[in-house]
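Why should sequence recovery work at all? Because a backbone constrains its sequence more than one might expect. Tight turns favour small or flexible residues, buried strands favour hydrophobic ones, and helices have their own preferences. The token representation captures these environments compactly. In the example below, the structure is given first.
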């Protein structure tokens, strides 16, 4: 804060009536003029007159010092200093520095130092005041070497003549010593005590009185206050309140008085503060003299009023409340009180009147001062402009003209701002909710980055928070904090609030640091700038790494200093750490679980005193730090729900807080259980807030409602059963309403972006015509779409209009490059389950995003990467999409890294969680094999120890299980997982290995027929595995409990039932190709074994006649393939359904069948069936093209038969 100017003149004190002494009038004492020794000498008087006449320049005075300094006495030295002060006081710094560096000036100071013991009070005041006006040693100005000794001698002399000195002279001396930075605290205490004892305050005019308060205010910010300060301040306030005295104050004196009172507020516990009546009078007098104030005075007055007004109003309100309470006491008690109590009981109305008067006077003062400053802001210093903004923000008094002028001023002079000015300006504009232009914010952030390394740690944390809160780039500030984070005292020197602010800034900068979708898209399309992008990304990655280290150090410090944090700072720090931690970090990274548990225990008793949204934020942060899941937030969620239930504050929850609390309650209900009545109240309260929710909140509600729909609440009796049913219905109703609101939001977003024209689609739960559209106009993210789609997939259905909107929005985000790997994998998993196939280009974009995410993880993928890879691979297999080889390898690496470990102890069982992860890994391995992954050995090797442990109960040596051993129990891994594992091993050529034999023993010795009857997919897998294993081990007879015939007799499908068109096309193709081969000299019956590819989509149950015909065809086909006269080529008629959707690569079943035939020494020639299928409606050109293609295919087959 800027400090008011010192005394500018020595006017005579104005007579006044002292407060508290109405019958006496104190007159100032007459000044006793001291005659200097030898003052009567004519030569001395002539020399004094000569010095006074040297008014041309400082050089004239210094020339006199050079020529006649050897005859100077103490009065001559004081007069010379006075003339230099008068000439240089308002001159430039270079002029004062030139005079101070002159040898004559040093000689003058030495002369004065030698005669300091002869100086009286008036000479001391003259010398010290002029030394202060010269600015020696201030603001980095050069000072002679003899100055400290001189100041010490003058201070010692003042202490000796204090009793005989005039009050004004003594106060001017301590003021000057304070300005020069040489005032001993003992001397200040002595002067203050003597002033109180001698009654100086009743004699002082305005300027010395303000100077004395200013001297006490100046060191109070950094040192201990004087012991006499409370009594001195009380006496000074009594004098200022004297009638008519305040009107004698000048503008500079009013500025000094207010600044001193504001700075001294709270300096001493017993020091009184300015009351509302006094502040109202001072504000009224200052408002009348607004034209007389300098820019520094305007800034000081506004800043002081902003500091003094709130406590004065609070004191007035407390006094009014106490008076009102006293008035309500019984009459008998009032009569027993002292006589003076009746006057005090009526003080409430007076206090209210004083407060109203203060508010009116302050409003008028700020209006006048802000208007004057806005019109003349170019003459203000940057610190003064920032102080004005800070005062407006502290009092909640936005002034449009001032804010606009200050924004333009700061935009052009941002390079002149100091660190504290930056903090005050940014915080003020944030509190005033004033829009900050991007150009201004960029300049302020740049200036903050320049000053970052020189800031104190607390100020660095506050400036970083202010820049990040305003939406600016706080990266340089965080980089400086991270660079200094290695210092032992950096994090330790931060107060709890500052540490929380620094963490908040780091979290906000991390979220803001990622470039937007349009920027990413343009960066990808811009050719020839890859190297520039890498160079630009390097500092960003360094900043992220530094921020991560800083967050780790701050988290450790937070855990160690947890008891010193209040509830608000702890909540802020927890939320920031949760955002910095990210979703993919391990649960115990940075002591997250321990910190979350300790913080939850500390915050739980304070939840009742917190705002509901703050309690929800704390619970959300604790759950995320602990790794999520049920019970991760500790006792916060039950305490929050119980508190809201007791107070009935469900409707007071903001929209975002309601969505988060519902998500936490859904997770809590899966483990320990939540009472149904609490869940019902929360569901109903959340549904009432849907109209105000943003898309991200709607997505959270959809996910939580889908979790609660299966009635996951606390068990109980009949009443609890009714409560579970009510929760189920309420969750489904909330999910439908949230989906309707999400449909409106997506539709509004698409219309605003021009992606889809027309009126919005009105589906279930559409918003009412008068509903606010603020939430619907918010930006969408791919994560929101994925959460909604996933919740609908769990529920089991979604409105068609919503699915259309989700697909359109996904295409829009995918084209803009704003769909990350997480959301892409979730969307790919959910949409096919809802019966909607995503467009091919969206699938390609999702595969690219997932590949980028897995490649960034490298050799240390996050735990969530394995789940994402498994979901994406399942979606790829469903869509018949073959992912790129790089993505398949990266997915296999992520799954291998997350593979569960086998127990080390012999006979130990795998935990339930490990078995669950192992089943998911088997499914992912199956999907990898089905999509055509090039190499599965890494994943198989990683899973083999745990799989062998899980399959061990069904292993009997190294042989496959035969029918006699059907009595073995089912595998712990599960029938479906074991069958998918065996299929994947056969596809990878590992069916004959140890793991393949163990899986085959588990499948053919433990899979019940009932499992296959309900799953055509598992039946098809069993057929494929039987064919592959018969090819690799011809002497082994495989069956399933009760035998293969029994399985077929019970209606379980074994092979595909081709459609009539497919059979006709195959028959026509055989005849046509046979004739073509006969023309080429080959006998088809002896040279070729015909085979048709099983159609995986057509598996189903056959009638007995179909089963008999199919069995006969299969036996003939198998016999033909095993006949020794058959050539080394098997012709397979392929069709489009046997090919993957991208590139026409063979599906997993086709590759598995080809591998089985190749293992028997046979080669496969796959011919496209569509070339021979009849198509009479095709144009002549197409028929000619098909004929040419058939000829080429026949020629290739003939070449294969010849062995070419």
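From this structural description, the recovered sequence reads:
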């Amino acid at each position: 804060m800027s400090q008011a100017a010192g005394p500018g003149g020595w006017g005579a004190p104005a007579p006044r009536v002292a407060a508290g002494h109405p019958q006496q009038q104190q007159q100032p004492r007459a000044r006793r003029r001291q005659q200097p020794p030898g003052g009567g000498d004519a030569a001395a008087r002539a020399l004094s007159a000569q010095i006074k006449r040297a008014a041309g320049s400082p050089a004239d005075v210094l020339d006199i010092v050079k020529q006649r300094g050897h005859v100077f006495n103490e009065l001559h030295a004081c007069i010379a200093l006075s003339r230099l002060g008068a000439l240089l006081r308002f001159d430039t710094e270079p002029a004062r520095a030139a005079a101070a560096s002159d040898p004559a000036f040093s000689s003058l100071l030495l002369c004065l130092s030698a005669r300091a013991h002869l100086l009286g009070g008036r000479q001391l005041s003259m010398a010290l005041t002029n030394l202060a006006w010269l600015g020696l040693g201030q603001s980095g100005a050069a000072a002679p070497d003899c100055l400290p000794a001189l100041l010490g001698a003058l201070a010692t002399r003042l202490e000796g003549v204090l009793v005989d000195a005039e009050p004004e002279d003594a106060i001017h001396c301590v003021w000057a010593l304070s300005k020069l930075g040489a005032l001993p605290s003992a001397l200040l205490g002595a002067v203050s005590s003597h002033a109180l004892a001698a009654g100086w305050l009743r004699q002082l005019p305005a300027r010395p009185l303000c100077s004395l308060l200013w001297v006490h205010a100046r060191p109070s910010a950094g040192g201990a206050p004087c012991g006499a300060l409370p009594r001195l301040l009380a006496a000074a306030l009594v004098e200022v309140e004297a009638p008519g005295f305040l009107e004698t104050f000048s503008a500079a004196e009013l500025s000094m008085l207010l600044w001193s009172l504001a700075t001294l507020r709270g300096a001493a516990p017993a020091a009184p503060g300015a009351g509302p009546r006094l502040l109202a009078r001072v504000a009224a007098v200052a408002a009348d003299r607004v034209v007389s104030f300098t820019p520094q005075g305007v800034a000081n007055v506004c800043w002081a009023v902003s500091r003094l007004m709130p406590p004065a109003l609070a004191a007035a309100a407390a006094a009014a409340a106490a008076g009102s309470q006293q008035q309500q006491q019984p009459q008998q008690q009032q009569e027993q009180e002292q006589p003076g109590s009746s006057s005090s009981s009526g003080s409430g109305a007076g206090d209210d009147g004083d407060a109203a008067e203060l508010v009116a006077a302050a409003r008028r003062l700020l209006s006048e001062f802000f208007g004057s400053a806005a019109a003349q802001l170019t003459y203000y210093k940057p610190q003064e402009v920032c102080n004005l903004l800070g005062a407006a923000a502290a009092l909640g008094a936005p002034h449009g003209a001032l804010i606009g002028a200050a924004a333009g001023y700061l935009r052009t002079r941002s390079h002149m701002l100091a660190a504290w000015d930056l903090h005050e300006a940014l915080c003020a504009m944030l509190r005033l909710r004033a829009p900050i232009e991007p150009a201004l914010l960029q300049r302020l952030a740049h200036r903050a980055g320049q000053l970052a390394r020189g800031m104190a740690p607390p100020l660095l944390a506050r400036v970083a928070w202010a820049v990040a809160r305003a939406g600016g780039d706080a990266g340089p500030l965080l980089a400086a904090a991270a660079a200094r984070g290695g210092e032992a005292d950096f994090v330790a020197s931060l107060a709890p609030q500052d540490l929380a602010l620094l963490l908040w800034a780091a979290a906000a900068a991390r979220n803001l640091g990622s470039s937007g979708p349009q920027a990413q898209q343009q960066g990808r399309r811009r050719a020839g700038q890859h190297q520039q992008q890498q160079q630009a990304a390097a500092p960003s990655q360094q900043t992220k790494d530094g921020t991560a280290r800083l967050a780790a150090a701050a988290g450790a410090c937070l855990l160690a200093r947890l008891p010193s944090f209040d509830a608000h700072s702890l909540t802020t720090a927890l939320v920031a750490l949760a955002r910095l931690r990210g979703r993919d970090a391990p649960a115990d990274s940075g002591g997250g679980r321990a910190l979350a548990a300790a913080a939850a225990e500390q915050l739980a008793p304070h939840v009742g005193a917190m705002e509901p949204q703050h309690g929800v934020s704390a619970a959300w942060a604790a759950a995320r730090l602990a790794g999520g899941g049920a019970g991760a937030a500790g006792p916060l969620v039950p305490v929050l729900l119980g508190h809201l239930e007791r107070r009935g504050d469900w409707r007071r929850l903001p929209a975002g807080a309601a969505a988060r609390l519902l998500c936490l309650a859904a997770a809590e209900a899966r483990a320990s259980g939540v009472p149904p009545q609490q869940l019902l109240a929360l569901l109903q309260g959340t549904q009432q807030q849907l109209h105000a929710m943003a898309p991200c909140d709607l997505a959270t509600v959809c996910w939580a409602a889908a979790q609660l729909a299966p009635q996951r609440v606390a068990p109980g009796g009949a009443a609890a059963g009714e409560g579970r049913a009510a929760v189920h219905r309420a969750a489904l109703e909330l999910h439908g309403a949230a989906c309707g609101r999400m449909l409106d939001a997506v539709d509004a977003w698409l219309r605003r972006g021009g992606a889809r024209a027309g009126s919005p689609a009105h589906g279930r739960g559409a918003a009412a015509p008068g509903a606010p559209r603020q939430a619907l106009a918010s930006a969408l993210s791919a994560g929101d779409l994925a959460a909604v789609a996933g919740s609908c997939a769990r529920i089991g259905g979604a409105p068609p209009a919503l699915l259309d909107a989700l697909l359109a929005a996904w295409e829009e985000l995918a084209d803009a490059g704003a769909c990350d790997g997480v959301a892409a994998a979730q969307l790919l998993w959910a949409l096919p389950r809802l019966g909607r196939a995503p467009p091919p280009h969206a699938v390609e974009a999702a595969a690219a995003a997932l590949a980028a995410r897995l490649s960034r993880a490298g050799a240390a993928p996050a735990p969530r990467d394995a789940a994402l890879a498994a979901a994406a691979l399942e979606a790829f297999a469903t869509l018949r999409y073959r992912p790129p080889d790089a993505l398949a390898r990266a997915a296999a690496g992520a799954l291998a890294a997350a593979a569960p470990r086998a127990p080390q102890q012999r006979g130990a069982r795998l935990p339930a969680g490990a078995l669950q992860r192992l089943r998911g890994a088997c499914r992912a391995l199956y999907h990898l094999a089905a999509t055509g992954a090039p190499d599965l050995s890494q994943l198989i090797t990683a899973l083999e120890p745990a799989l062998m442990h899980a399959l061990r109960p069904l292993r009997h040596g190294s042989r496959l299980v035969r029918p006699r051993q059907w009595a073995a129990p089912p595998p712990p891994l599960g029938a479906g997982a074991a069958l998918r594992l065996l299929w994947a091993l056969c596809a990878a050529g590992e069916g004959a290995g140890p793991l393949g034999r163990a899986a085959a023993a588990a499948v053919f010795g433990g899979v019940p027929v009932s499992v296959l009857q309900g799953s055509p997919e598992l039946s098809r897998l069993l057929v494929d595995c039987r064919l592959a294993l018969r090819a690799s081990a011809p002497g082994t007879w495989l069956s399933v409990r009760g035998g293969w015939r029994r399985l077929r007799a019970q209606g379980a499908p074994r092979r595909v039932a081709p459609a009539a068109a497919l059979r006709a096309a195959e028959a026509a193709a055989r005849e046509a190709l046979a004739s073509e081969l006969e023309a080429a000299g080959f006998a088809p019956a002896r040279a070729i074994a015909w085979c048709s590819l099983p159609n995986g989509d057509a598996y189903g149950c056959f009638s007995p006649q179909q089963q008999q015909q199919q069995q006969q065809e299969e036996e003939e086909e198998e016999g033909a393939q095993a006949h020794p006269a058959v050539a080394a080529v098997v012709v397979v008629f392929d069709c489009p359904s046997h090919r993957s959707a991208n590139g026409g690569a063979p599906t997993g079943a086709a590759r598995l069948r080809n591998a089985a035939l190749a293992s028997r020494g046979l080669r496969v020639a796959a011919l496209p069936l569509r070339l021979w299928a009849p198509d009479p409606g095709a144009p002549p050109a197409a028929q000619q093209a098909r004929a040419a293609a058939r000829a080429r295919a026949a020629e290739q087959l003939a070449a294969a038969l010849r062995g070419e």
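A few observations help interpret the result. The beta strands are 1089-1092, 1129-1134, 1163-1168.
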